[in-house]
Amino acid sequence: MSLRLFLVLFFTSVMSLVSYGQQVRFEVINTPEVVAVGEVFRIEFNVNTTKPDKFTPPKFKGINVIAGPSEFKSTEIINGNRTDQYSFVYVVSIDSAGTYTIPPAEISFDGKSYKTKEFKIKAIVESNNNQQRQSQETSQNRNNQKKTISSDDVVFRLIPSKSTVYRGEPIIVSIKLYTRVPLSGINGVKLAAFNGFWTQRIDDATETEWVRETFNGKIYNSATVAQYLLYPQNAGKIEIEQCAINVVVQKEVERSRTQSIFDMFDMPMYETYQLPLKTKPVTITVKELPAGAPAGFNGAVGQFSISADINPHSMSANSAGTYTLKLSGTGNMSTIQAPKIEFPQTFEVYNAKVVDKLQNSLGGTSGTKHFEYPFIPRAEGDYTIAPFKFSYFDTAKNKYVTLSTESFDLKITADLSSTERSSGLVSGISKEDLKILGEDIRYINTAPLRLMPKGYFFVGTVWYFVILALIILAFVVTVIIIQRTIKMRGNQSLMKGRAAGKRALKRFKKAESDMTAGNEKEFYAEMLRALWGYISDKLDIPQSQLTKENILEKMTNKGISNELGSEYMNVISECEFAQYAPVQSSIMRELFDRSSKLIVEIESKITTKK
Question: What distance in Å separates the CA atoms of residue 339 and residue 321, rounded to the nearest whole number?
């Protein structure tokens, strides 16, 4: 045996042993779950190994086997890691409507047996589809059918999970595209603004997949364009506005005969055209929550649990502690604000820090929220922090539920680090009392005296009036500056509005760098943060009230035209869709330029009005 042949056999054996060491998966893949009666399709059994020692196919009952099994194998070696695939493929059809079960297939590999799971296929008779008539169609009729695209060959739908809910109860809205013809592009997307709802986007899948689905008695390839969690904010009937989209459809056209030798191949020709689509209007009935809400109910809807902790339980006066409230569950957690905790009067309490770990999924918004309350006790003694009661409406039980935390006993000892106590000047008096006593303490002035000659009067001299005028002028200027500073600091909306442009500029620079690097997802995410953040700060609209109606109303009050406002919302919609669209050309530069121009125009309009 030659050395070369020996090395080849040795390498093949080693790589085979590596593949044997991996977990064997034998399964049904690339097989539709829904088919039309008479449709020819594939059933594929796949194993992630080399060729099995034995393959035992299932018994196909009610399924016509046209061809197979055909065997296919593939091998990939990437960075020294070998991946083998071996498939057994059948070409089949079904003559009658119904649900058909494919029993498990079985293989033997390396002395062990493996089986697939039972697989079900549903065969349906499509609407306006007569199999016998189809079998009798001439070739010319079939060609004419190919050249015609029906109005229901491409459908755009907005599908809510519920049509009647309580205020604050989540609704899952899916925006889906259905097609029975080839598509080559999507543009002109306009998603709904979801006015009247608190909106959270669901991004479970890393990429959009096309699947076979039955709708109105026909089989389509469908793709979920976007999914949202909607939390209704007010009771009544709320209509979700229509979503719009333009799809580029490929249609087969008749080929002109040129008496050329190439006419014998009869190659099909296609033309493309844009097809505008809109979703049908959808109305959601929102019921008011039942009467009899417990005291302290703040609108929480879902299923929750709470717990609390305090750290430390024993401490000295003027040292820091933390009270932590943990809220867990599923519901409208994004809208729940930090609750008010009752602390003893001698405790100095600071603003709560909110740390949330929330996830938006098809089950709703779930996770945890931590509310941390830093506090400093200013006087020694024994204190009790009463239990905190949290009330919410449980949609599963259809009633209000009140949860309660435990109470906490705190022992606050004297502040031994205080210099007032250690000096022994004041004993048995707390630091709070010492502050009050300090208001009456006066010390003897030991500075040298400055005496003036007898008979000299500074009052009435020229310098007296000059200094007096300067003092009055300085006082007036200081008062004006202080008042403006207090007004600006107190008016958070004014400060946010002035800084809105700078914040947007920083985000645009980050988006431009992502665009240059070709990071499309990061680019669109940064653009959306810039556009939503700018309009929220500039028009002083809280994030929870960022609806199309509120934005357009605020813009009108600021002297901005409806056309400019609508264009701004269209850019936001296009950025949202471009981030997750299943088929989308690169339009980053166009959206970047349009967004920059719009913000410059809005800034100039608002500045000019001021």
Answer: 18
Q: Is 456 helix (H, G, I), strand (E, B) or coil?
A: coil
- The closest of 393, 294, 408 to 342, measured between CA atoms, is 408
129 vs 457, more confident: 457
What phi and psi values does residue 282 have, to the nearest 5 degrees? Answer: -125, 130
Task: Please say whether the beta carbons of 391 and 300 come within 8 A.
Answer: yes
DSSP code, position 545: G
Residues 6+ apart with CB under 8 A from 283: 163, 237, 238, 239, 240
pTM above 0.85, yes or no: no
Q: Is the pLDDT of residue 282 over 80?
A: yes
Residue holding tokens 């796949």?
A: 46
Distance separating alpha carbons of residues 116 and 459, to the nearest angstrom: 108
CA–CA dist 468, 462 (Å, integer)? 10
- Return the closest-CA partner of residue 329 out of 356, 308, 351: 356
SS3 call for 580: helix
Q: Which helix (H) or strand (E) holds 463?
A: helix 462-490
User: Tell me: the pLDDT tens digits for 548-586?
Assistant: 778 888 888 888 888 888 888 888 888 877 766 644 545
User: CA–CA separation, 29 vs 72, rounded Å?
Assistant: 13
Q: Which residues contact 339 (CB under 8 A, 6 or more apart)?
A: 298, 325, 371, 388, 390
pLDDT digits (tens, 9 = 90+) for 495-534: 666 677 788 888 888 888 888 887 887 888 888 888 888 8
Given the structure tokens 């999970």, which residue do they identify?
Answer: 161
CA 380 → CA 89, 116, 383, 490, distances in Å?
Answer: 81, 71, 9, 35
pLDDT tens for 401-455 read 999 999 999 999 987 765 444 444 444 444 444 444 444 555 566 667 666 666 6
3-state secondary structure of 364: strand
Assess contact for 22 and 48: CB atoms under 8 A. yes
